[in-house]
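Box 3.1 — From sequence to structure: Adenylosuccinate synthetase
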Amino acid sequence: MTLTIVGSQLGDEGKGALVDRWGGDADVVVRYQGGDNAGHTVVEGGTEYKLSLVPSGAVRGTVGILGNGCVVNPRTLFTEIDDLRERG
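Predicted structure (token representation):
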């Protein structure tokens, strides 16, 4: 089954919260557009993760994909990946 969450407005509409809620059982979480200008906070196992580029499902071990519509800031991406690796 495929579940797609799309926002029709600019800015913070709560898309990240919906992905966090509904994406818990997903095999893959794909971010298809956007950049690192908006962050999202995920709490998993009592640990808080602050992300702005990496898809939120990654904190649960879900495969995260950044699509070709994403604007990737390499510094942000590698900082977030390093932080996730340090936390296990």
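Summary of the box: The mean pLDDT is 86.
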